[in-house]
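Justification of resources, computational component.

The compute hours requested in this renewal are based largely on the per-chain cost of generating structure records like the one below. Each record pairs the submitted sequence with a full structure-token output. That output is archived, and it is also reused by downstream analysis tasks.
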Amino acid sequence: QVQLVESGGGLVQPGGSLRLSCAASGSIFSIYAMGWYRQGPGKQRELVATVASDGSTKSADSVKGRFTISRDNAKNTVYLQMNSLKPEDTAVYYCNAVLQPKWTMTSNQYWGQGTQVTVSS
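The structure output for this chain reads:
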């Protein structure tokens, strides 16, 4: 079994900062990519940022310069540092991992349960 557990969401004022964490645990052979997606009210889920096993990153244009994704391979954990938050960043943020469990030779995509981020004064 594999689990992704997120933490760090909450309520913050515009211009504030939050740091999200997501730890993968269970019978994991290898993690290829980890990332964050979000789904705002009445919107489709969208990519926020991803980080590959070699540390290379991709991020949505809407968060470039404000959000930073990082990864600790030893801890199977991905972080999302969010600065200069805006009301339009309000969403449920989901952790995502592409990984190979120990019981299979193929990789699969896994999701966390989601953590709410609300940006409001």
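The chain has a mean pLDDT of 96. The first strand starts at residue 2 and ends at 7.
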